[in-house]
């Protein structure tokens, strides 16, 4: 029963502070992303052999369609998951249901008697993946103070690299030593551990009902009423007044703050009465229209699509290029992938750290600009060490874009009434999923049919990065680099109201309305 105490109306959840803390939520979301990518990649080296054992032909094509089935499940489930998560303001339950679906998909794939069951299992796995990428990231933004969102997202995103780093090698080793079922048992075991973590989560709005705000842990908050299901009456000491924000943007929270002569607390204690208006979910069409009218959102989603496209285009072509040019076998190709993935373990948290300090516009533009030359170097055929170094360098800078892009989407959500974190991360998941779905097909077709397939892929990627650099320069951030450039060289514009002032006024206007009434003594 302890796992479900967070929803109890008469007992305070045990471990309230650490189970709702920013760092615990970051750990759970990061581990969830690791599990998702591990389960996704662990079957790649073993599926072809299992299909051959089941007497299937054209194994390479069938394997590709299984990867596509995963992306199909991810894309098709994104919109309903995002809308329902915001409609009912729930994070924890969808995350738990997603893990149950993931464990079920692993067992289904492991015991699949034919190809159709394998495809269904991959679709189910894609649906589970949507849960952590939409609801998990939304939960993290709900809990994290705005000034630290970039850092925490960057740390959580390291799970992407860790999952890919562990998944494929572990799948090959487990299959060769213990047979076909071993990789799936390992993946299901990791999912069970992930499930235990998710069961421990306490959402921020639940913690607030018990007088604790995980985004402001230094605030002294004393709960007055033991009934967490009723409207919370919270007493705060005058040391610090917690600025309460809703966990989603779909409704308006009103906080009534009254000075009360309560001698049992302190002479200047304040009574905080938190009342939530009925949350009116906006329709899907309204969400789409709002996002389509925001240049910052469109640019961030375009970069999400390009990131998924670029990363997946090289999946079918890189091993063939290394094999044809330098006669790499599967082991050496694995080492090349290892060299490419390891730098991303550093770049993602590093980028997130600096996003909170200098802004997403600087980090996005810089990472894209520094990634561009390495894709040109990858077209060279003279040196294996140079090729591996260029592969690692481009992965470092390209992976560094993820943290500022997700932080940018969180900022867009805060400035749009009715558009919550699950909405923007649902759009992110949709754009990324479409990119990863079409990327392998495009990459494989170009490599097979173009005269210099690998060079063509590198040139296409370079062109896409140039487009993203231009968009980042013009539109990323509240005060884009283009606006700064124009103000610097055309000082007359500085006489007008600067975007920084507009930003401060926008950020200071919260969807939480605080109405202070000074009561008579």
Largest sheet: 5 strands, mixed
Mean pLDDT: 77
Please, what is the oligomeric state? single chain
Proportion in helices: 55-70%
Count of beta strands: 5
Distance between the termini: 45 Å
Morphology? globular
Name the poorly predicted regions. Answer: 1-8, 224-279, 501-521
Individual helix count: 21
Structural class label: mainly alpha
What sequence of helices (H) and strands (E) makes up the elements? HHHHHHHHHEEEEHHHHHHHHHHHHE
Order of strands across the main sheet: 1-2-4-3-5
Radius of gyration: 25 Å
Beta-strand share of residues? 5-15%
Verbal overview:
The chain has 21 helices and five strands. It is mainly alpha-helical and 521 residues long. A five-stranded mixed beta sheet has the order 1-2-4-3-5, with no helix packed on it.
How are the secondary structure elements laid out?
Elements: H1 16-19, H2 22-42, H3 47-53, H4 59-87, H5 92-110, H6 115-143, H7 149-178, H8 181-199, H9 204-209, E1 221-223, E2 233-236, E3 253-259, E4 270-276, H10 284-292, H11 295-313, H12 318-326, H13 330-341, H14 344-358, H15 360-377, H16 384-399, H17 402-414, H18 421-449, H19 453-475, H20 481-489, H21 499-508, E5 512-517
Parallel strand pairs: 3-5
Antiparallel strand pairs: 1-2, 2-4, 3-4
Characterize this entry briefly.
The chain has helices at 16-19, 22-42, 47-53, 59-87, 92-110, 115-143, 149-178, 181-199, 204-209, 284-292, 295-313, 318-326, 330-341, 344-358, 360-377, 384-399, 402-414, 421-449, 453-475, 481-489, 499-508; strands spanning 221-223, 233-236, 253-259, 270-276, 512-517. It has 521 residues and is mainly α.
């Amino acid at each position: 029963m302890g796992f479900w105490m967070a929803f109890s109306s008469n007992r305070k959840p045990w471990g309230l502070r650490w189970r709702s803390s920013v760092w615990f939520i970051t750990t759970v979301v990061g581990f969830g992303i690791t599990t998702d990518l591990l389960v996704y990649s662990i079957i790649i080296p073993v599926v072809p052999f299992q299909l051959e054992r089941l007497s299937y032909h054209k194994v390479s094509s069938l394997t590709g369609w299984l990867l596509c089935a995963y992306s199909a499940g991810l894309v098709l489930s994104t919109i309903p998951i995002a809308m329902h998560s915001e409609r009912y303001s729930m994070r924890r339950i969808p995350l738990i249901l997603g893990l149950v679906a993931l464990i079920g998909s692993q067992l289904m794939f492991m015991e699949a008697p034919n190809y159709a069951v394998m495809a269904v299992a991959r679709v189910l796995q894609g649906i589970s993946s949507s849960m952590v990428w939409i609801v998990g990231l939304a939960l993290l933004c709900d809990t994290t103070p705005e000034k630290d969102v970039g850092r925490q997202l960057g740390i959580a995103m390291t799970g992407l690299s860790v999952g890919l780093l562990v998944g494929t090698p572990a799948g090959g080793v487990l299959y060769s030593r213990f047979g076909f079922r071993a990789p799936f048992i390992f993946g299901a075991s990791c999912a069970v551990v992930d499930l235990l973590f998710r069961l421990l989560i306490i959402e921020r709005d639940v913690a607030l009902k018990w007088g604790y705000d995980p985004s402001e842990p230094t605030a002294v908050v004393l709960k007055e009423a033991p009934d967490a299901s009723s409207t919370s009456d919270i007493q705060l000491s005058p040391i610090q007044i917690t600025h309460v924000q809703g966990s989603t943007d779909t409704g308006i929270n009103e906080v009534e703050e009254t000075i009360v002569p309560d001698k049992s607390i302190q002479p200047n204690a304040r009574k905080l009465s938190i009342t939530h208006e009925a949350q009116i979910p906006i329709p899907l069409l309204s969400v789409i229209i709002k996002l389509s009218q925001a240049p910052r959102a469109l640019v961030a989603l375009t970069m999400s699509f390009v990131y998924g496209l670029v990363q997946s285009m090289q999946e079918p072509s890189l091993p063939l290029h290394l094999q044809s040019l330098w006669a790499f076998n599967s082991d050496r190709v694995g080492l090349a992938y290892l060299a490419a993935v390891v730098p991303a373990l550093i770049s993602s948290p590093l980028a997130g750290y600096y996003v909170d300090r200098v802004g997403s516009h600087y980090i996005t533009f810089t990472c894209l600009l520094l990634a561009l030359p390495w894709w040109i170097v990858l077209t060279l055929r003279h040196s294996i060490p140079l090729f591996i170094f260029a592969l690692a360098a481009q992965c470092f800078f390209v992976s560094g874009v993820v943290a500022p892009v997700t932080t940018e989407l969180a900022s867009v959500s805060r400035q749009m009434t009715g558009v919550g974190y699950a909405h923007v991360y649902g759009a992110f998941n949709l754009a990324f999923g479409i990119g990863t779905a079409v990327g392998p097909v495009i990459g494989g077709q170009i490599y097979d049919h173009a005269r210099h397939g690998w060079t063509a892929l590198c040139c296409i990627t370079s062109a896409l990065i140039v487009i993203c650099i231009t968009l980042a320069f013009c539109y990323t951030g509240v005060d884009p680099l283009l606006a700064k450039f124009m103000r610097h060289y055309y000082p007359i514009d500085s006489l007008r109201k600067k975007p920084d002032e507009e930003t401060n006024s926008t950020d200071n206007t919260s969807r939480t309305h605080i109405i202070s009434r000074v009561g008579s003594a």
